Amino acid sequence: MAESINGDSVPESVVSEVNANGSVEQEEKPVPELTPAEQLQLQAEQEAAAAEAAAPKVNGKKSTGLDVTSDEAFPSLGGPAKAPAVRQWGAKHSGSAANLTGTGSTWTPQISSGGHQLTHELLKENKRPESELRKPAADLIREIMKKTGTQIERQNIKITGATIYIINGTPAARLQAKKLINKEFAAKGIHTVSVPAGVRPFIIGKKGAKIQELQTKTGTNIKVQAQADDQEIPDDYPINITVEGDGDGVAEAVRLIQLIVSERVIKIHRRIECPGQYYPFIAGPFQSNVERWEEMVDKVIVPEYITSGTPPPNYAPPSGPIEVHGEKNAVELVVKEIHDKIAEIERAGYTHSTAGLGQSDRNKIRLFTRNKGKLIQQVLQETGSTVITPPSNVQAERLIIFGPLDAKRKAIANVYEKMDQVRVNALELCRPFATAAIGAKPHARNVVRHTRRKPAIRAIESECNVDIEWPPSSVLNDPTGSCVVHIIAASDEALLSAKNRFIEFVGAYASYERFDYVDVDPLHHKHVRGKDTKNTEKIGAAHSVELLFPEESDDEQIVLIYEGASKDKEEMKQALEATKAQIAEVVKSQANIVTVTLDVVKELHDKIRGDRGTILNALNPSGVAVQFGEPKPRPGRVPPAEQTADTITLRGPDAHVETARKNILAFLKSTEAQQTPEIITVAFEYNKQFSGNLIGQKGANLNKLRDELGVDVKLNEGSGEIRGVQVCVDAAKKKIFQHLKELEDKATVVVKVPQQYHSVIIGSEGSTVRRLEDRYNVRINFPRAGKGEDAAESKQAADEIIIKGSKKEVEEARKEVTDLWKYEAENSHTATISVTARTIGFMFKTASKDIKQLREESTARIMIPQEDKSADPETKLEIKIKGQKDAVQHAKNVLSAIANTAENTSSRTITVDKKYHRSLIGQGGSTLKSIVVSAGGPDDRAALARMVRFPNQGSDSNEITVQGNSAVVDKIIEAIETIVEEKKNQITSIIEVAPESHRKLIGREGSTRKELESTFNVSIDIPRQKPNQANVSSEIKITGTPESVEKATEHILELVKEPEGETVEVPRYLHHSIAEGSFFKHLHSKYKVSVDHNGVPRPPKPADVKQTSTEPLPLIIDDDAAQNESWEIVENTPTEDDGTYPWVLRGTPDNIAKAKVELEKAIANAKKQSCTGFLVLPDPRKYRFVVGPGGSTVDRIRKETGCRITIPRNQAAGEAIVIHGSKESVEKAKEAVLEVVKKSGSGEGRRY
After folding, report:
1. Mean pLDDT score of the chain, rounded to an integer?
2. Is 532 exposed, middle or buried (0-12, 13-18, 19+ CB in 10 A)?
3. What is the pLDDT of residue 234?
4. Assessment of whether the complete model's pTM goes beyond 0.90
5. Of residues 1115, 1108, 1120, 1243, the one with CA closest to residue 1178
6. How far, in Å, CA of 363 to CA of 390, rounded?
7. Closest alpha carbon to 380 in 414, 352, 357
8. Contact 551, 634 (CB under 8 A)
9. Crossing angle for the helix pair 492-507 and 455-464, nearest 10 degrees?
10. Which helix or strand (DSSP H or E) is residue 214 part of?
């Protein structure tokens, strides 16, 4: 059935490019605060910094051209077709589905960087309150900029409450500035991680060494749950570890703790193999069994099995076995359950059955596999059977249902029911591009390749819940075929929406001025792309042009597509020409590419290739491109005439091509008399100490020579031989001697480094040593068991580091390693502070920010013992400080002052009835914050929570604990007692408000009520209304002080006062006819007029007029059955004493008058509907044609005839289409319906 889709013109595209401002800078000296180890970690970023130019802006202009809503331009393919004879799947599918990819508290700062700019974001919940800053924010920013030599822009995001800092400068300076910003503006976080009790000793370490190391490395405070000496706890019993510090430090500490746990807990891995068709039942519907098992173990993997490349009973094997990973005992339990499930399936004798597919159903199969097989999971959940589909490149005529025999019928019916809900629309893309200069099919091919990877297409699929199936490469590359895209949806509405959006998006590419083409030798494509496609992105950003590279490696054409905002043809042309010029500059700087064609008969081509291309590899050491015979045809392009079946084409840098040409011709001449090249053996001598290096690990080097050159290499204590074709033997010998030369240049040195400084050279997770190895191309081994070549060496002493590589690079690496550890040795001064265990606890509770700030500013390492609540409060502990002399002394002075302050901290507990706790805390903690700040306490949430502690919600305790400075604690308790006394004097008042006005007092998500409570300092209790609940209470309770309650009452009564209204009397028998649909919503949206009925109950809905005819319907025996419809007209007779029903229109007088006119028109129209027609079609399949796509057909008939038309919801045989209107209009509507049915043609029904 033809469709016509109308819509607005294509909107102009707007492209916004945001680039980091920066310029090329020379390597700068790092700021003094960084150690050499930190400098080394930053050097890679310094060396990689480069300039980025901002993208030029273009002005958009209106474009005229292709009507993207035209069905003439974008025809819809489809229509009924006869299904071919049923067969096993195997017929090739004419289209292939494209694989398109459609994402606890979080408080770690968000960081992104590019060029010489770094963006650092602090979320609202991670920020320190302004009142706690030691200076105004602007002054702090200026101080940081002066200290680090950076430029910092600070932006507050009002919507989220976050603050963004944009930092410009050298990499080292940016990192230092970010560190200082965290110190001044970030709040502290706390994270708790649960670990097995058996791991506790390894986290603490000998005499607390390990936990102190973790605290020093991450700048956090780590507390391990205490354990009594006489308490026996199983090793697998969970204990809690609390980590306190900034976001980065907490995340790193948690990661390191979990790494220790993973190394100590006994874990195993099990694999289970069984037929793939069992997998869905093992995993359970929607992975329910897997989710349950993963509560017991770390990971359970049951590969997806929804597709089989071969039909039953020879199912394709699964993609992999079932895997279970985790703690040993738990894994064994899960494995047993899985084996039990397999045995249960085999005992039940699960079998397969098939569901035949009509022609229109075959494009719907993809919906079963999308969203991780969601529909298949639904079938499994509802019927206990699973569905197995053919591969996406096979158009099958049946689906496989696998499961219990007694569930067969239910499963097949369920599958058909789900397919009936699927809609498919096919769009031919060649027709709208018929006038393209390069031809309709080549242009459509380029548009498909470009758009199918666009986010806009993924958005259409995601937002409309559809699948877009693109033509496969075989169809795209066929110059004569069509280019059809299928849109698959679960509803007509989704299909129509997706189709309109797709046509609008793709139709924009009918502006051919947006396209241009440039031929670049394929060998230069990698240079145009650049490393990680950075060059392509740079070119695109500069000119708003995207580059589409060919899919095949020997195709030279690059398609340029303008994606800027401008619609001006001249501006598009300039951008495309500038892009071509920039590509030409890139290619110009590369080696000159030449093409040479050799006349070599086709019969000799295999001789030159050799077995697996080995002879060609020897003849072509530089890897120039080699084309045997004619090139592959390209759509819209003519192949070179000189390339025939009896030619070999070489393409590459001229020197390399010349070498390959000479080698090939010399090889042909030397083997001219040989049908196959002669096999020879060549002996050679070498230093026997390099035997292991020549062989490689597990013979890898010799295997590589055999695979590349087809030679057999044998080595024996300094002598060797190579056997193979002459050219291959020569090439292998050259590679071996080149390898030997490299080995002779290698050196090994031993550097004496005290073991305590090895961690400095290794760096965090080996980052420093890896950078040294990459920079100098060396291997650095520390004193531990080695692998490969290292295994043969003698054991290293504890203070030895071995460096291997070329002589020059080894010496450079040795110098840097020596500098690193000596610098560390010079910065190892220490100091201690003796404090009590009680003081340690209060130090972190009262001065955690100062300690964190000290750790961030100081270059010294600060190690504070963990608080042990079970220890004697007067036990003496030591705070240790290590680093440079001045830094150590400064840290000691600061920590000594903090310790003295902690000695003056007190803790008090008061009893307050629990019913007042909520009022003391206030909404979002606002009341409590006001109390604490007014008393001189902190205002950040973490410190406030530590100072005032309420009992847990489930606790029966009434005690509130206040802890901090003694004077502040006394003021807080006094304020709490005052508020409680006020609460005891509150009153509650009840007012009457009509239930229908309650929503005015509640507001969206309770916003109005919250505002009223905040404004008048009262609490308001509004009765909760449930759907369809009758007799809702009108009582609203207001609680507060007498004065506040009085003011709130006056305001509420004024708020719910109803506006003036006008009453219109509507005949009772017409009320439901007018009110049906969206008439009330229409009046409200158009005129802002609401309708009520002054509390008068609604009149009962009049009984529907019934069809009187009882004649039997004709059987569906052929396509002529559509002519045997049943038709009957019944006159409507309203009851004489119906009377009227009041409609009260409320709004402004002008709008009430307009709404009244519209209501009177509706009454007059309803009175005209004096007859009801009943039209029964014998073939219920025809009802869908009457409805049309998205209801478009029936809406058109309604508008043309003025009738109300109701299509049967279930569309079952014998149900009538009901038509209301005048006798003449009803007859006219009937004829329109029959005309639609007649045009729809005959469709073959499903055969079971």
Report:
1. 79
2. exposed
3. 66
4. no
5. 1115
6. 12
7. 414
8. no
9. 170
10. helix 209-218
- Region 267-421: CATH code: 3.30.1370.10
Distance CA 844, CA 877 (A): 15
Q: What is d(CA 793, CA 785) in angstroms, rounded to the nearest whole number? A: 9
From residue 626, how far is each of 652, 661, 664 by CA, in Å? 9, 10, 11
Residue 172: closest CA among 20, 49, 19: 49
CATH pick for 512-589 out of 3.50.50.60, 3.30.1370.10, 3.10.580.10, 3.20.20.70? 3.30.1370.10
Query: Which listed CATH number (3.60.21.10, 3.30.420.40, 3.40.50.720, 3.30.1370.10) goes with 828-906?
Result: 3.30.1370.10
Indicate if the pLDDT at residue 374 is higher than 50. yes
Residue 280 to residue 1240: CA distance in whole angstroms: 41
Q: Do 480 and 633 contact (CB within 8 A), yes or no? A: no
CA 714: distance to chain centroid? 53
In degrees and rounded to multiples of 5, residue 326 shows phi and psi of 160, -160
Tokens matching residue 528:
């145009």
Residue type, 967: A
Q: Compute φ and ψ for 696, nearest 5 degrees.
A: 85, 165
Place 36 in a pLDDT band, splitting at 50, 70 and 90. Answer: very low
User: What pLDDT does 516 receive?
Assistant: 93
Q: What is the spatial distance between Cα 701 and Cα 695, in angstroms, rounded to a whole number?
A: 5
CATH superfamily label, 909-1024+1033-1056: K Homology domain, type 1 (3.30.1370.10)
- 970 pLDDT above the threshold of 50: yes
Q: For residues 368 and 374, what is the distance between their CA atoms, to the nearest angstrom?
A: 7
Residue in this structure with the two tokens 């100072």, named with its chain if needed: 947
- Would you say 845 and 963 are in contact if contact means Cβ atoms under 8 Å apart? yes
CA distances, 846 to each of 167, 329, 899, 931, 965 (Å) = 32, 45, 10, 18, 8
Instruction: Name the 3-class secondary structure at 627.
Output: strand
Residue tagged 């706790």 (tokens): 917
- Reduce the secondary structure of 1103-1148 to three states and give it as a string: CCCCCCCCCCCCCCCCHHHHHCCEEEEEECCCCCCCCEEEEEEECC
**Whether CATH 3.30.750 fits 423-510:** no
Residue for token digits 């895997």? 323
DSSP state for residue 1028 in the 8-state scheme: T
Concatenated DSSP letters of 224-238:
EPP--TT----TTSE
117-185: CATH class:
alpha beta
Q: Nearest-CA neighbor of 789 among 677, 700, 725?
A: 700
CA neighbor of 327 nearest in space, from 250, 236, 427:
236
Q: Of 10-14, 551-555, 927-931, where does mean pLDDT reach its minimum? A: 10-14
- Out of 3.40.640.10, 3.40.50.150, 3.30.1370.10, 2.40.37.10, the CATH code matching 189-225+235-263 is 3.30.1370.10
* Pair 273, 321: CB distance under 8 Å: yes
Q: What are the CA-CA distances from residue 968 to residues 838, 848, 928, 932 (Å)? A: 20, 18, 14, 8
Contact predicate 650/626, CB 8 Å: yes
Residue 447 has a pLDDT of 92
Angstrom distance (rounded) from CA 1039 to CA 990:
9
User: Which H/E stretch holds residue 570?
Assistant: helix 569-588
Contacts of 272 (CB under 8 A, 6+ apart): 321, 322, 323, 324, 335, 338, 339, 342
Least confident of 111-115, 253-257, 1012-1016: 111-115
**According to CATH, where is 3.30.1370.10 located in the chain?**
117-185, 189-225+235-263, 267-421, 512-589, 828-906, 909-1024+1033-1056
117-122/163-168 β-pairing: antiparallel
Determine the Cα–Cα distance for residues 222 and 416; give it in Å rounded to an integer.
60
Tell me how far the alpha carbon of residue 654 is from its chain's centroid: 47
